[in-house]
Structure to design on (227 residues):
């Protein structure tokens, strides 16, 4: 590739982002876009560099200023390299992001490539592209993240000791997981189906039940702290 282009990148203002100038995303965007007006009470969560339809990068200056990066790649697919061209059909296969995280992010599930293509066809409003979502993160500042589930023995213990958790996953689901775990064997395999049912029960539980059980858990925690 004979040229390097400066890009004007898209910014996402999700509620979990950092506020105002405390956000690295906002600071970077301010350097990149002189017209950007930083609001101290606004959250700035992500800066995107890529061709995603919900936040495409635009060539910033020079004779091609204003041209979307996607259009330029379509006109110059050789810039991706032969292997990427062949495997990803002349598409940029990644979305580079800078995140400024202030609160816990929402729970995410990332489908396989095959499943992503199916979901995109069936529910494009919820799955706006046909790509899977393998991720790699590089922490620029201290950062904590959770991936996957707790060890199954801890989950079972919490279901036994915390009635509110038992209630929100569903008593039948909780009992099945506990019984399956107590039956022994290779629990990493035997408990998969029961754990899936518990998680599904939690994620599809009625909002009022979630709210009431959460309030109960908070009150119980306060009493433990007082004692």
């Amino acid at each position: 590739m004979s040229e390097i282009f400066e890009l004007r990148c898209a910014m996402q203002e999700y509620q979990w982002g950092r506020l105002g100038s405390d956000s690295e995303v906002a600071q970077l965007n301010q350097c990149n876009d002189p017209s950007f007006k930083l609001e101290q009470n606004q959250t700035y969560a992500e800066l995107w560099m890529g061709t995603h339809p919900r936040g495409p990068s635009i060539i910033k200056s020079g004779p091609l200023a204003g041209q979307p990066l996607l259009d330029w790649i379509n006109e110059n697919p050789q810039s991706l390299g032969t292997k990427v061209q062949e495997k990803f059909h002349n598409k940029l296969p990644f979305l580079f992001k800078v995140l400024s995280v202030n609160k816990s992010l929402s729970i995410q599930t990332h489908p396989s490539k095959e499943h992503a293509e199916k979901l995109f066809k069936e529910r494009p409003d919820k799955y706006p592209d046909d790509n899977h979502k393998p991720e790699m993160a590089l922490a620029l500042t201290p950062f904590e993240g959770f991936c996957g589930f707790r060890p199954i023995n801890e989950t079972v213990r919490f279901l036994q000791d915390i009635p509110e958790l038992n209630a929100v996953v569903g008593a039948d689901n909780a009992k099945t997981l506990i019984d399956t775990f107590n039956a022994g064997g290779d629990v990493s395999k035997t408990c998969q189906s029961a754990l899936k049912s518990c998680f599904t029960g939690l994620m599809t539980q009625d909002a009022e039940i979630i709210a009431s059980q959460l309030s109960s858990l908070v009150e119980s925690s306060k009493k433990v702290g007082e004692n």
